């Protein structure tokens, strides 16, 4: 009589070799394609505190535009037509001067543009706008 073969219980296993191959190929790909750029750096010599130069006081021109579209500089009202001459005189004394325009919410954009255009026509390139609601 023949004996029946008994099946041995073999555990099913997954072959991980192809997955490891793919992982290593991807690793090599990313290493090769990564750009290794050495960033340049600059060494700076800081000046001593005794060598500090104090900036001149009030180099900037502050032009204030009031709610009724009147323009004042240094708490003196000035006409739109005289703005360019004022800016030219001030920039002749201090060429590094900038113009800071403080415009009220109710002032018109035309007045703001007129002040900025007068400053640029006088040769002042640094024109900035300061939003200050405390203008009376």
Automatic annotation (TrEMBL):
Family, according to the entry, reads as follows: Belongs to the ExbD/TolR family.
Under what name is this protein listed?
Biopolymer transporter ExbD
Signal peptide feature range: none
UniProt subcellular location: Cell membrane
What are its GO cellular component terms?
Answer: plasma membrane
Molecular functions per Gene Ontology: transmembrane transporter activity
Q: Does the keyword Cell membrane apply?
A: yes
The way this protein sits in the membrane is described as: Single-pass membrane protein; Single-pass type II membrane protein
The record ties this protein, via InterPro entries, to: ExbD
Q: Which UniProt keywords apply?
A: Cell membrane, Membrane, Protein transport, Transmembrane, Transmembrane helix, Transport
Q: Which Gene3D superfamilies match?
A: 3.30.420.270
| Primary localization class, coarse | membrane
Which PANTHER family does the record cross-reference, listed alphabetically?
BIOPOLYMER TRANSPORT PROTEIN EXBD2, EXBD MEMBRANE COMPONENT OF PMF-DRIVEN MACROMOLECULE IMPORT SYSTEM
Span-the-membrane segments of this chain are: 20-37
Which GO BP terms apply? protein transport
Give the species this sequence originates from: Dasania phycosphaerae
Instruction: Decide whether keyword Electron transport is in the record.
Output: no
